[in-house]
Amino acid sequence: MHQRFSRFPLVTSLALAMTLATAATSAEETEKTTSEAGFAECLTGIEQKAVAAGVSQNTATTVLADIEHVERVIELDQSQPEFTTTFADYLNRRVNEARISQGRELLEEHRNLLNRVTRETGVPAAYLLSFWGLETNFGSYFGKMSVPDSLATLACDPRRSTYFTGELISALKIIDEGAITVDQMEGSWAGAMGHVQFMPSVFLKHAVDADNDGKRDLWNSLDDALMSAGKFLQSMGWDSEYRWGREVLLPDGFDYALADGRKLPLGEWRELGVTDAFGNALAREDISAALVVPAGHKGPAFLRYKNFNVIMGWNRSEFYAIAVGHLADRIAGAGELRNPPPTDTPNLSRNKIQELQETLGQKGFKTGKADGILGPTTRAAIRDYQQRRDLIADGYPDTELFAALGINIETAASNDG
Ligand SMILES: [Ca+2]
What we know:
Elements: H1 10-23, H2 27-52, H3 57-65, H4 71-78, H5 87-94, H6 97-109, H7 111-121, H8 125-136, E1 145-146, H9 147-155, H10 161-176, E2 186-187, H11 200-206, H12 222-235, E3 245-249, E4 263-265, H13 266-271, E5 275-276, E6 288-292, E7 301-304, H14 306-314, H15 318-331, H16 350-362, H17 376-388, H18 399-405
Antiparallel strand pairs: 1-2, 3-5, 3-7, 4-6, 6-7
Bound molecules: calcium ion.
């Protein structure tokens, strides 16, 4: 899969590629050589920007001279899953008994380090373990891609060139400071690195040398990695007074339209009859919270507090933030969700969601572009339609919704009733 481009020094590779282009006979060779020349030219531009941004000439020249274009990275960047992931699939794959018990063991094993990180950053140990567990299964898999190769490939692709050029320059600065050698700088295909999968720009800004060996090493030093995770969360406003949120129970006849992202004071949720997962009244705290029903009204409900947004600053996904919070709770000793998400909901294909969007659009409900993605606008349109049809307005595309719209979801997975 890897398309290996030239290993020649940058200065000469462009000229050489052009010579080759002239000599090329088949159309395929010409195309390949032209893209090689484009890549070499792109790297020359990045070299100049990197040096202007403070990277040493030596690092910029030597690292970029050995860069290889990795076609697989572009494929991964452009691939869109055919099916949406259900909340049950997402959560059960990430928060399982093996991971919880390993997290509990590691809580004991690294208690001193974790206490130190909590003292310095305010982030409790269970959350640090949760991020570590979700990102790399507690350090067991960092990703095997060359970070400079991946970032250069993405930087020279037009789609998100500016962002990845910045990340590549940050990676060069990390090599420059001696944190890691270029050969050891491995990570995910998108450039996330080490125990807690920091992108290079996050590394530069927030990584710390917690074991005082003179290097910020997020691959080989757990002290550095967990302290850096704590510092990053602290910088985004982690509030040590509060939890991430919590699972809640909703009373019969609850108006699910309130789960549309609006923030209400905890006291108002309390007056609406919302309780904690054990049926106890919510605390009279002066904080605001939003209600989330990630699997619709048949699944669990959560109130999200301020730290939920901090978690989403790490990874902008509501499922991810719930997984971090729930795994942290489980590691700290809590039991299973009171309402586990139903596992028999269909995995909807993008085509089916597109059909749903088009059908709602034809009926006058604005879903935005029919792109096959369940974004906030589509959910709002679903909610409007559900209200109009006297369905439970949770904004969730369940079998009742498809039936009401006359869309056949032809799946073996649904066996309600
Ligand atoms: Ca260190």
